[in-house]
Amino acid sequence: MVWRCYPSFLQTLKLVLKPSLLNIHREVYRKRRLLDGQLQNAVFKRTLQTTASLLAPRILSLEEIFARTSLQDYLKQVENEYNDCLNTVNTNETQEEEQRAKRTKVSCLSPVIQSIRDLKAKEKEMAETEVLLKDDDQALRQLAEQEREACLHDIQVFRQKIVDLLIPEEDADLNDLVLEVTAGVGGQEAMLFTAEVFDMYQGFAHHHGWSFDVLEYMRSDLGGLRRASASVSGDQCYKKMKFEAGVHRVQRVPKTEKQGRMHTSTMTLAVLPQPTEISFSINPKDLKIETKRASGAGGQHVNTTDSAVRIVHLPTGKNINTGVWLQQERSQIKNKETAMKVLRAKLYSMKLEEETSRRYQQRKVQVGTKGRSEKIRTYNFPQDRITDHRIGMTVHDLESFLRGEDLLDEMNSSLEEFSNQEALLELLGETDQS
Amino acid sequence: ESISTLSSLNKSLQLIWVVYAVRGCSGLALPVQRITALQAAHSWSQLFQEKGVSEPDLSSRYITAHVLGAKTFESVKAETLSEPLCPEKTLQIWKLCAKRLKRMPVQYVIEEWDFRDLTLKMRPPVFIPRPETEELVDIVLSDLQKESGSLSILEVGCGSGAISLSLLKSFPQLRAVALDQSEDAVHLTKENALSLGLEDRLQLYHLDILKDAEIILNSCSGVSAVVSNPPYLYTEDMLSLQPEVLSFEDPAALDGGADGLTVIKQVLILASQILLNHGRVYLEVDPRQPPLIQQWVESHLQALCYVETKQDFNNRFVLSQMLMS
């Protein structure tokens, strides 16, 4: 059983979350189009290998990435691997099983190989054009100039394509998800902020055309939100939402504050990929389903309107259950279905973390539930700004941001690109060592 | 901003106090000032608590949510809950809560309840479906899913129609015959079937299995399954029931005789005569009854064979199955 390993995994998790471990020299690059955007205004410091706090990451352009020897080496290695496999497949000398493995490899690598070849061809064309730029004939020089522009554009396109193909896909990227918000420190003010963030992601889901079904909504007395969860499904929803998980911090003068003092409060967002029925199953014997009416008579003996349900996963104990009583529906069996959905998502993301924790532990952009104790973003109302601490990106206009539309999407896309770049550099780093 | 919040908070405290001060002995007096849904629910919950009404908090919340056009309090928007209620809505809450104070079940007060994914009309004295029965439907559903072709079931004691209508909703190729000894029940099932658009595949009869066995035999045969939540309470337990059950629900839907088995035995006899080969009987029964039922079937009905008993997830109510062999 996978779940037997749970305690040791928890310890690993604690280690992973220690911020000091994250002070690791990281460089990132960005796509050229975004270099011209607002990110240029953010402070990019050169990272240093010190014990000081996290430094804002530097962002590399495509040119810079392709200037790196590690990338060139990696591409050469990919080409060699491809050629080797192709030779083996063509010579037909090896075992059937090895043949099949090599054939799969060939088809996997062929798109990136094609792009590498396209790029090389363009670079050659570019070099030829550059000779013409020194020609005496002015008309020819002008023509060459136009040619060069077109070449440059194509080169960028092929570089981007190569980079996209190299970045590994996440296992859960295509899944639907369960989103869970919980108020953190700051009492009622934190709960009010939690309600706003929940609405923001509802807006974000709407913006992307995803469905957003509220599973649970526990409000506070003053109109805030203690905790809530929702089931989100739609195209690439997990791939985007995974970057939003973590601690969100708000700085403002709360409505309830009499002396006009500024408060800092927090809320936590967890994003749990929803497993498909086939990919992940739970043994019903491992579940303890509870209702509040567990003792005393039931059935025809009593009238009840209490339909709340809670499920405990016995092998993992109390740590993994739906936490609260789910009473969003009047039907008990519907509440049970909802509780199962939440439980499945929680167990599945635990399993995923277990599998990928080592791979991720040195990244700035932690995804999934691992980001839980990490402060990822600050919403500062007096300055009307939102800062993401992982990539040091700041945007202004809180009102638009909280609508969950373009502004949030912009920050989310930057995080995605940043994360892709981290993944790519990690890939190159591994190659360097081997 | 902060001062106004404070003063309105004070006002509401005052108001609750006023409400309590002028309360008569038959419930809460209608508030003079406008109050919010939260305050209304809170006041009634406290009074229910004082008067020993079961599930005081849930009762007042379900009634308030219903008046606001929602199913649960949790699904009402936060702003709506803290807005002052219009006088009509306040009056409606007061009227409905007064009924609950007299121990009328919430399901009858708001005249509807959910069973699985259906919303059904509820009306006294027709038996209110219990959560355990949702699980009985689960078991029948998972067995029917393995079957193919046209299927038919018989439900004995349909009440509001919960079991038959759930099954019909899930299986477009299924036909059902449902009967009940109560005319009110037959009418209510009819209404629910009509509002769910399931009336075409449902045959309804006002018949009593204890008296009209012959007629039932003549009007229905060759069914794939017999399903029932029959009256299974022991007569001696009837008097100790909650007022909600005792004073409002039809005793005929609850009282199963001295050993609670009177109707169960009739259902089994009928089943042995009308089931197709390998057809099944599904019953919700009291936890004390399965061994008695098994014994009785083995000695009286050779055609039936006891299959198994499943407990509901509170390990309290059991769902027994018998197989036609």
UniProtKB/TrEMBL annotation, chain A:
Pfam families: PCRF, RF-1. It is found in: Mitochondrion. It comes from the Eukaryota. GO terms for cellular component: mitochondrion. The keyword Coiled coil applies. Its main location: mitochondrion. GO terms for biological process: mitochondrial translational termination. Keywords: Coiled coil, Methylation, Mitochondrion, Protein biosynthesis, Transit peptide. SUPFAM superfamilies: Release factor. Transmembrane segments: none annotated. Mitochondrial peptide chain release factor that directs the termination of translation in response to the peptide chain termination codons UAA and UAG. Belongs to the prokaryotic/mitochondrial release factor family. This is Peptide chain release factor 1-like, mitochondrial. It comes from Periophthalmus magnuspinnatus.
Automatic annotation (TrEMBL), chain B:
One of its GO terms (molecular function) is nucleic acid binding. Its EC number is 2.1.1.297. GO terms for biological process: methylation. GO terms for cellular component: mitochondrion. Keywords: Methyltransferase, S-adenosyl-L-methionine, Transferase. The keyword Nucleus does not apply. Residues 40-110 form the Release factor glutamine methyltransferase N-terminal domain. Residues 138-233 form the Methyltransferase small domain. It catalyses: L-glutaminyl-[peptide chain release factor] + S-adenosyl-L-methionine = N(5)-methyl-L-glutaminyl-[peptide chain release factor] + S-adenosyl-L-homocysteine + H(+). InterPro entries: DNA_methylase_N6_adenine_CS, HemK-like, N5-glutamine_MTase, PrmC_N, SAM-dependent_MTases_sf, Small_mtfrase_dom. It comes from the Eukaryota. PANTHER family: HEMK METHYLTRANSFERASE, MTRF1L RELEASE FACTOR GLUTAMINE METHYLTRANSFERASE. This is peptide chain release factor N(5)-glutamine methyltransferase.
